[in-house]
TrEMBL record:
Residues 1205-1237 are annotated as: Disordered. Residues 1-151 form the F5/8 type C domain. InterPro entries: ConA-like_dom_sf (IPR013320), EGF (IPR000742), FA58C (IPR000421), Fibrinogen-like_C (IPR036056), Fibrinogen_a/b/g_C_dom (IPR002181), Galactose-bd-like_sf (IPR008979), Laminin_G (IPR001791), Neurexin-related_CASP (IPR050372). This is Contactin associated protein like 3.
């Protein structure tokens, strides 16, 4: 039971400046109750009000202190506004009490009468308490009345409750040594457990072979700076299959090694070096401690003699210590220090006789010594490394020569200088030292720092004497997800490299949570890291995202996805196959849980090998699937769970109607049972057990495909808020130390609150503060903090915008879309626990501020998605879902692709595009040989109407042309070459060719009674094997031609009247030899075309795409071999479609290789006739290829023999780039008009 403790004057010790007149200012009356201090009068007030005063209380014995209360001095203007609390068991070696591990000061009073009480989060156990005022009423002095709450501390206290599943070893210790064994337990088989200190950290070690084991296995590591001569509580507790290691208030849970499942302790040894122990409690139950246990004692003294070691802390830039020297024939200085900083001045002193100065400092965590004289270094030395590790390091500086120094000319200086000292005696050209020192000696004489504290020796400024205030900010580490923690004296840093996470504490994942999210960032098929729970504990995993289909598939492989023959094991009636997946258990569970649909192929190929049905009804084979090791499943792919059927049994088309699986017919011919497992609770398939594989003549093969899932329920989970007063509410958000919030929104409103959660004083809120600004505000007890991001474009444009906010112990950040993140650092010495207790409001506020009107989607808090849709179904004013995604994602549809709305997301319709793929970005290309051509015949309008419902939209268009828009890409080494030819029924045409000068040439003949007009580009070397793109656009009599290497160039027809290309016409690329062609074009067509054509587009029609993808339903005629390929554009074809096409196996097993865990080869049919047929086909292809090559060479030779083609040189004109001269050398008609482009 807690009691109020008020202490008489004889229990108080005051600062050294107040020893004489303490009774005049320290009137303190005891209080008989714990309710208030107002019954007492007077109070304590020192003569001088500065930060070097303190009030010390001796409680008479070790006490468990749970709270303190302060009040100003009675009837005055004297009170302190903030203070520090120190505790000690001996009156020396003080330890500062910190709230929340970092907050060092306590807010005090605001007047002389009110009482401010603080309950300590962790009770302090000490005999002495010291209160140090930091700030006070500027109109008064330091003054206070103090009350302490607690109860006497019992060393042993009540023992832990004994239960059948709990074994505990508990002790308290304190030491000055940073290494040594605290507890060692030996058991049978040479196994032992040890609790050891290593560099001030407690290690739980497992050894095999006793204490001499060279490399112990570390099970856990906890604590830091445990060599501080303060009491620390340690407990090792067994709970079931886990061990909990507790050091002070931090616990680490570890899995018990399998070696210890039946381990008996034979001897418990307590080995320590310069340690004190109290409260050693041992409770071993169950199998852990037999009756033969013996406790051995070595050199043990049942008392705790503590050496007095006074340390001093240099906390800041004005920390300063000055000590006098003494004349000696041999001077020396010694001390120990510990720090986290890599650099800092340790000490300096003058050499009067030499006229020099000595500097001893840290640089790059090495100790360096410099002796300067007249501005140059006489001596430089360095020693040590990694001296910023927080451990104590000893320094001894000794000179055999006479270094004489006295009070005036000798200065021993540590760290910085006083703020008020402008003299030349205090100088520090190096970084300041922040750390602790102890055991200071000058000329082998110890320095009494207590005399320094009392101003009886030397001088100092802003030091903490008789304590070491070092803090390990990396224990426990605030860096999440494996981030590496490093620190300086004041801050810590997290290195998130290779962790997959980012931010000040490695909290936020750098990966998306699904393939669906990657797709909507504009990515195409490929391998991606997926982090299914964002900032949660599940690690990222590498999966394949297949975006070639309407659905976006996440593909997870295992160790054998090929069709594999069963090789029976002798003596075993069953064959067991286990599948290991590339993802861990929790990853698989999360993926199947958040996906809308999952499936996995399961197939069995058999010859005299039955599958499920037996005469007794027990299946021959089964499989295990689902979480963990899986549950037994007795149905097969394509059937329903629990049916004990295959797909054919469900469909009623098995080869034997008396059975529910094809393989159960037990025939000598090959059969198969294949299908998809779609019941998510049964996925993934973990193991197969095949039973009927041992009979003579039995043969079987199996295939378990990869796990495939599509649809991200979290990504599209959305709610629409109709009114500003509507909202959704959820349970309180728990993000005490780390909180990340992400969501997407779209709205037409200019402001509104997205979410809000309140506490008593704390709160967190994200809002749209204006049409261009998002505001993230919160309060964790240090006052409201705000982070803002300003957008250059309006945010109320009814398009999706993404918000990501994060708050941790180091900083708060806010990111909007892809704009740079705005950050706000957290106070260095402030509260950092976010304490909320109200409901979480989404789309509105508890404070009745203006709510949000619009859509919120994919709302995640610390990686957990809130189900907005389910809550919206039962909430008035809020509707589930939010349509209209093309306004945000429509730009992802490229190359004239059309965005089509879906219930969850969108789809790109590539019907009017020459491209294909998920975003209409994959080129459609083909390799052409000399005898290859594609002819596309356009239909009459009435035929279009009749066939429009069944044919692709890219095939037909309006046939009355007042203009054309033609584009294509090509790659060839052939010159000259005719690329494409478009003609009408009235012999009007458009031809695109490469002439013999490697120039691009465009010929237009729009009137059969007139000659063709020719335009030539000045771009040469087009037949260089590189990819070139050409666009031709005509509107009535105006034509523009553009290549990828030049700007668009324009020209007009010379004829006043431009006829229209009407009715039916043909599109040939490249055209074959025909009587309808002009003679010179016919000669070019006779050469054929060898090369690659890509993305051929004519108005809204894509002839090449129709020929390759819809040859049966398109009006195309393909002559010669047409091979789909990739011309080498930037948008490459998707490799997944060609290499990893998912299909149900079993229709044809030829071409697969037999072997355990290997692809199946020639498993079913090994007919030798197939081999002969293949040989015949190869010979035929070779002979045909030789014939075509010979014909091509002969015709090319004849063409050049009959043509007398000469180049025409034209003068370049910068004012008018087109020329009207004729080209009688290249055109048979003398009146043909030609131009240069």
């Amino acid at each position: 039971m807690l009691t109020a403790l008020s202490w008489l004057l004889n229990y108080f010790t005051f600062g050294y400046e107040n020893l004489i007149n303490q009774l005049l200012y320290a009137v303190f009356f005891p209080s008989s109750s714990s309710s208030s201090l107002s019954a007492g009068a007077g109070g304590w007030s020192p003569l001088t009000s500065d930060r070097y005063q303190w009030l010390e209380v001796d409680l008479g014995e070790r006490t468990r202190i749970t709270a303190v209360a302060t009040q100003g001095r009675y009837g005055s203007s004297d009170w302190q506004t903030s203070y520090l609390l120190m505790f000690s068991d001996t009156g020396h070696n003080w330890k500062q009490y910190r709230q929340e591990d970092s907050r060092g000061f306590f807010p005090g009073n605001s007047n002389a009468d009110s009482v401010v009480q603080y309950k300590l989060q962790q009770p302090a156990i000490a005999r002495f308490l010291r209160l140090i005022p930091l700030d006070w009423n500027p109109s008064g002095r330091i003054g206070l009345r103090l009350e302490t709450y607690g109860c006497p501390y019992s060393k042993l206290g009540p023992g832990p409750r004994q239960t059948s599943s709990r074994e505990v070893v508990s002790l308290k210790f304190k030491t000055l040594r940073n290494s040594g064994t605290l507890l060692h337990a030996e058991g049978e088989g040479g196994l032992s457990l040890s609790l050891e200190l290593e560099r001030g950290k407690l290690q739980l070690l497992l050894r095999q072979g006793g204490t001499s084991s060279p490399e112990p296995r570390r099970l856990a590591s906890l604590g830091s700076l445990l060599d501080d001569q303060h009491w620390h509580h340690v407990a090792v507790e067994r709970r079931g299959a886990h061990l909990n290691l507790t050091v002070d208030k931090h616990t680490e849970r570890v899995q018990i090694p399998t070696e210890f499942n039946h381990w008996d302790i034979k001897q418990l040894i307590n080995i320590h070096v310069s340690c004190c122990f109290i409260s050693l409690v041992i409770i071993f139950l169950s199998l852990l401690l037999p009756l033969s246990l013996s406790l051995s004692q070595g050199n043990v003294t049942f008392s705790c003699t503590e050496p007095v070691s006074v340390a001093v802390t240099f906390p800041g830039p004005q920390s300063f210590l000055q000590l006098p020297g003494a004349a000696a024939t041999a001077a020396s200085v010694g001390f120990q220090f510990r720090t986290w900083n890599k650099a800092g001045l340790l000490l300096t002193f003058d050499l009067p006789q030499e006229g020099g100065v000595v500097w001893l400092y840290l640089s790059e965590a090495r100790l360096r010594l410099q002796i300067h004289k007249a501005g140059r270094a006489l001596l430089e030395l360095s020693a040590g490394s990694a001296l910023n590790d927080g451990q104590w390091h000893s320094v001894d500086l000794t000179s055999g020569r006479g270094l004489f120094f006295d009070w005036i000319s000798a200065l021993v200086s540590c760290s910085g200088c006083p703020a008020e000292d402008d003299s030349q005696e205090c100088r520090n050209p190096f970084d300041i030292f922040q750390g602790c020192m102890r055991l200071l000696t000058v000329d082998n004489q110890p320095v009494d720092l207590i005399l320094v504290q009392q101003r009886l020796l030397g001088n100092y400024s802003q030091l903490q004497i008789d304590m070491c205030g070092i803090i390990d900010r990396c224990s426990p580490s605030r860096c999440e997800h494996g981030g590496h923690c490093s620190q300086s004296w004041t801050v810590f840093h997290c290195n998130c490299s290779d962790s997959g996470y980012s931010g000040a504490t490695c909290h936020s994942s750098v990966y998306q949570q699904s393939c669906e999210a990657y797709k909507h960032n504009g990515n195409t098929s490929g391998h991606f890291y997926i982090d299914v729970d964002g900032s949660g504990p599940i690690k990222p995993q590498l999966v394949y995202c297949n975006m070639t289909e309407e659905n976006t598939w996440m593909v997870i492989q295992h160790n054998n996805t090929e069709l594999t023959r069963v090789r029976p094991s002798p003596g075993l009636n069953q064959h067991l196959i286990h599948f290991d997946y590339s993802s861990q258990e929790e990853q698989l569970s999360a993926i199947t849980g958040q996906s809308e649909h999952c499936e996995q192929e399961l197939s069995y190929h058999c010859r005299k090998s039955r599958l499920l049905n037996t005469p007794e009804g027990t299946p021959f084979s089964w499989w295990l699937g689902g979480p963990g090791s899986g549950r037994i499943q007795t149905y097969w792919g394509g059937a329903q769970p629990g049916s004990q059927q295959c797909a054919c049994g469900l469909q009623g088309d098995c080869v034997d109607p008396q059975h529910y699986c094809n393989c159960d017919a037990d025939r000598t011919e090959w059969a198969d049972d294949s299908g998809l497992i779609t019941h998510k609770e049964s996925l993934p398939v973990r193991s197969l057990v095949l039973g009927d594989v041992q009979r003579p003549g039995s043969e079987a093969a199996y295939r378990v495909g990869p796990l495939r899932c599509h649809g991200d329920k979290n990504f599209w989970n959305a709610a629409f808020f109709d009114k500003e007063t509507s909202y959704l509410h959820f349970p309180t958000f728990h993000g005490e130390l780390s909180a990340d919030i992400s969501f997407l929104f779209k709205t037409t409103a200019s402001s509104g609150v997205f979410l809000e959660n309140l506490g008593i004083k704390d709160f967190i809120r994200i809002e749209l503060s204006s049409s261009t600004q998002v505001l993230f505000s919160f309060d964790v007890g240090n006052g409201p903090l705000e982070v803002r991001v300003e957008s250059d474009v309006p945010l109320n444009d009814n398009r999706w915008h993404r918000v990501r906010a994060e708050r941790n112990v180091k900083e708060a950040s806010l990111r909007l879309d892809e704009l740079p993140a705005a950050t706000q650092e957290a106070p260095a010495d402030g509260h950092f626990h976010l304490q909320l207790n109200s409901q979480l409001f989404i789309g509105g506020t508890a404070s009745r501020q203006k709510g949000f009107r619009g859509c919120i989607r994919s709302l995640q808090l610390n990686g957990v998605t809130l189900d907005l849709e389910e809550r919206a179904k039962i909430t008035p004013g809020v509707r589930p879902g939010c349509p209209g995604h093309c306004s945000s994602y429509g730009s992802l549809c490229q190359n004239q692709g059309r965005c089509v709305e879906r219930a969850n997301g969108f789809q790109c319709d590539c019907g009017l595009s020459a491209y294909t793929g998920v975003f209409c970005h994959t080129e459609v290309s083909a390799i052409f040989k000399s005898g290859t051509s594609v002819s596309y015949t356009f239909k009459e309008p009435y035929e279009l109407i009749r066939n429009s419902s069944t044919l692709p939209s890219s095939i037909y268009s309006d046939m009355t042309l007042r203009g054309e828009n033609v584009s294509l890409s090509f790659r060839t080494n052939q010159s000259p070459a005719l690329l494409l030819y478009i003609s009408s029924y009235y012999r009007e045409y458009l031809a695109l060719l490469i002439n013999k000068h490697d120039e691009l040439e465009v010929r237009y003949k729009l009137d059969s009674s007139r000659d063709a007009e020719v335009w030539r580009s000045r771009v040469r070397s087009l037949a260089n094997g590189q990819l070139h793109t050409v666009s031709i656009r005509r509107l009535t009599d105006s034509v523009s031609v553009q290549t990828h290497t030049r700007q668009k160039q324009h020209f007009r027809f010379l004829f006043n009247s431009v006829p229209l290309v009407e009715t039916s016409f043909s599109f040939l690329f490249p055209p074959s030899e025909s009587d309808e062609l002009d003679p010179d074009l016919a000669r070019l067509a006779a050469l054929g075309f060898t090369g690659c054509l890509s993305v051929v587009h004519f108005n809204s029609i894509s002839p090449l795409k129709a020929a390759l993808l819809h040859p049966d339903t398109s009006p195309v005629i393909i002559t010669g071999p047409l091979v789909q390929s990739n011309c080498g554009s930037l948008a490459s074809a998707n490799p997944y479609a060609a290499e990893n096409t998912h299909h149900l196996s079993g229709k044809d097993l030829s071409g697969k290789r037999w072997g355990e865990s290997q692809p199946l080869v020639n498993a079913i049919r090994t007919d030798s006739a197939l081999i002969g047929g293949l040989i015949a086909v190869v010979i035929f292809v070779l002979v045909t290829g030789l014939a075509i090559t010979a014909r091509f060479l002969y015709r090319r030779k004849e063409t050049y023999r009959n043509q007398d083609v000469k180049g025409v040189k034209q003068e370049d004109s910068p004012d008018f780039p087109f020329n009207n001269q004729t080209d009688s050398q290249n055109v048979s008609d003398e009146n043909r008009k030609e131009y240069f482009i």
